[in-house]
Design a protein that fits this description.
alpha/beta, Rossmann fold, 7 strands
Length: about 230
């Protein structure tokens, strides 16, 4: 059975960093994948609004979607303040995600880990879980938290809760597609040995793979898993 997949994230680029190889794998299996982002992903680093920079990020996001094969739900994306979602009512974020939920009725959802260092990630995680709170007849069967280098690996200082995955996806055959999508966000990529460098991400994929006997893998935390059979 083909699945509908929703990726609910804070910033455009999180989808590739956290689950780009998995998205490509879903597409290869015939699933439909849709993404929503809550911010433009660049506003926090500008002293005043720069339309050119914002448009460049939008173009990068669109190019990345073409590389991986997913679709942006632009009518469900928002322009909330980048790295400032704590200035927005949580209910407003929830309503955006509920709109996307109503539109595509996904079977599988990927979102952020609540323990990430980035405040936007925390709030999108919380809002996504609230938007997909259980109801009778709920079709959503799986919700996974994605791993974002420099956010998931730096968040443990507060509560010693490292990102501890319990679900792995083999991306050995889709790493090249993830790599090509990462190049669309070249302005976001850092120099090695930063964990957000392309080499750093490949090392992470290999490390996660070695944990479960694969060449390369993306790792996730199961936030909710339902079985109706």
């Amino acid at each position: 059975m083909k699945k509908r997949v929703l990726v609910s994230i804070a910033h455009p680029d999180d989808e590739v960093l956290g689950c780009g190889g998995t998205i490509a794998k879903h597409i290869g299996q015939g699933d439909e994948v849709f993404c929503i982002a809550m911010t433009d992903g660049v506003g926090a680093r500008m002293l005043k609004k720069n339309t050119r920079v914002i448009n460049e990020r939008k173009k990068a996001a669109l190019n990345a979607s073409k590389k991986l094969g997913f679709e942006w739900l632009y009518d469900c994306c928002e322009n909330f303040p980048d790295n400032g979602l704590d200035s927005i009512k949580l209910l407003d974020i929830i309503r955006v995600i509920e709109k996307a939920k109503k539109k595509i009725n996904p079977h599988i959802v990927y979102t952020h880990d609540f323990n990430d260092l980035n405040i936007d990630h925390k709030l999108v995680s919380d809002a996504t879980m609230t938007a997909f709170r259980p109801h009778e007849g709920e079709i959503c069967e799986s919700i996974f938290a994605i791993e974002i280098p420099s956010a998931s690996d730096y968040g443990a200082y507060k509560n010693s809760l490292n990102f501890s995955p319990n679900h792995y996806v083999d991306i050995s055959k889709t790493w090249t597609k993830k790599f090509n999508a990462l190049k669309c966000y070249r302005e976001e990529m850092k120099k090695y040995p930063n964990s957000r460098s392309v080499k750093g991400l490949e090392i992470l994929a290999k490390y996660r793979g070695t944990q479960v006997g694969m060449h390369k893998a993306e790792a996730f935390k199961v936030l909710r898993q339902l079985s109706r059979k």
